[in-house]
Structures are given as C-alpha cells and as structure tokens.
Amino acid sequence: MSEEPARGQGSSPARVGEAAREDGLISVNPAEKLGRFVKTEKPKHKAATLTAAEAQRLLDTTKETYAFQEYLLLMTALRRASVAGNW
C-alpha cells in the first residue's frame, strides 16, 4: 500500500483530537502535527541479518574472548532474534 493516499487523511490520534477540540472537550489538539517530522526518504543503509554460521562464529569468539555473562547476553539476543523471525 502506498503511503501517498494515506498522507492527506491524517493520523487516527489527530482525528480523535480534532473531534474532541470541536466538541469543546479540549482547547488544543496535541496530535495535530504528529506527521510533521516523519521522514519518507529511504534509509542510507540496509539492515542485514547474520547467517547461522556467522552467528555461531560470533558466539564461539565471544565465549573464548569475553566473560560468560557477555556470552549469555549475546546468546539470548540471537535466540530472541531467531524466534522473532529475524534469523
């Protein structure tokens, strides 16, 4: 879905705030300019995920080089990413 058709419709919080302002419930709509700072340009860098071999190499290196707590932290992060479908 293109973001262009939705651009003129505003955000749901802005519409709710506008209705509340029109009904006299609030004096100013705090969500009026929510999309003002949203950038629509493409990011400069594309995120990349580790392959299973790269992740294993990183874990092995961490286990050899750092304390056990860092190894556990990295292992937990990699496991969480794999459960979320990122790996």
How would you characterize the overall build of this protein?
The protein is an all-alpha fold and 87 residues long. It folds into 2 domains: 4-37, no CATH class; 52-83. Helix content is 52%, strand content 0%. It is built from 4 helices and no strands. It has helices spanning 4-7, 12-22, 52-65, 68-83. Helix 3 packs antiparallel against helix 4. The longest helix has 16 residues, at 68-83. The chain is elongated and about 65 Å long. Mean pLDDT is 78; it is low at 1-5.
Q: What's the short story on this structure?
A:
This protein has 87 residues and is mainly α. The protein has four helices and no strands.
What's the layout of helices and strands?
Layout: H1 4-7, H2 12-22, H3 52-65, H4 68-83
Number of helices: 4
Q: How many separate domains make up the residues? A: 2
Strand content: under 5%
| Global shape | elongated
Structural class: mainly alpha
Fraction of residues in helix: 40-55%
Low-confidence stretches: 1-5
Mean pLDDT reading: 78
Largest sheet: none
Query: Would you list the SSEs in sequence order as H and E?
Result: HHHH
Gyration radius from CA atoms, angstroms: 23 Å
Measured distance between first and last alpha carbons: 26 Å
* Oligomer kind: single chain
**How many β-strand stretches?**
0
Keywords:
mainly alpha
